Amino acid sequence: MKRTLALLLFLSGCATSGYGHLPAADQSDVHRIEAYLNGIHGLQAEFAQQGPDSDQSEGQFSYVPGHLRLDYVTPHSMELVAGEGRLVLADRSSGAVTHLSLRHNPLGLLLRHPIHFDGEIQVTDVRHGDGSLQISVAQADNPSQGLLTIQFSDVNGQLSLIGLQGVDARQHHFGVVLSDVHQGVTIAPAAFTPPAG
């Protein structure tokens, strides 16, 4: 946590938009990631989420460029719909509905459409692993508002979204790990209509 806070403070003092400061190979990977995320016609997966509190939750993850939906099964039924600048979370057990702006939420960095990691977004890190690739991004004009790391499998040049890690301005951390990922899934636009309330 101290390392993340130090990174955010460092970034806030040297904001650089885009990814022109990165080595050429990393810039190429950023282009690949942009093309992949903008080209997804529909992605569904099972997810396990840790945080922002200490509880773990699970359910179904649905994504199309600009929109995200999480249908929670455990610890109890909830529905999260995010896109068009806002996030709405409906708790089926209590009936409570929470509305949040994506402007200061790390998920907002993923839900712009089309996605271009330049201008208002700063690429802070690109990392490669054995069959994996991840990119970390923040708001260029105010990186301390949050950091999002988007994780992919990268096998034979083919990317697949496998996880998200984020920390917001209040140092709340969350992580989402995807499994049983299906791409090219047709998802009805109504699935991304925010719940009423």
Name the features.
197 residues, mainly beta, outer membrane lipoprotein receptor (LolB), chain A, 11-stranded antiparallel beta sheet, 11 strands, 14% helix, disordered N terminus
Total discrete domains: 1
Approximately how much helix is present in the residues? 10-25%
Q: Which CATH architecture?
A: Clam
CATH topology grouping = outer membrane lipoprotein receptor (LolB), chain A
Q: In order across it, which strands form the biggest sheet?
A: 6-5-4-3-2-1-11-10-9-8-7
User: Class in CATH?
Assistant: Mainly Beta
Percentage of residues in strands: over 45%
- Topology order in helix (H) and strand (E) letters: HHEEEEEEEEEEE
Pfam families: LolA (PF03548)
InterPro entries: LolA/LolB/LppX, OM_lipoprot_carrier_LolA-like
Keywords: Signal
Protein name: Outer-membrane lipoprotein carrier protein
Description:
It is built from two helices and eleven strands. It is mostly beta strands and 197 residues long. The protein has a single domain, classed as Lipoprotein localisation LolA/LolB/LppX (outer membrane lipoprotein receptor (LolB), chain A, Clam), CATH 2.50.20. Strands 6-5-4-3-2-1-11-10-9-8-7 form an eleven-stranded antiparallel beta sheet. Strand 8 (132-139) and strand 9 form a beta hairpin. It starts with a helix and ends in a 14-residue tail after the last strand. InterPro entries: LolA/LolB/LppX, OM_lipoprot_carrier_LolA-like.
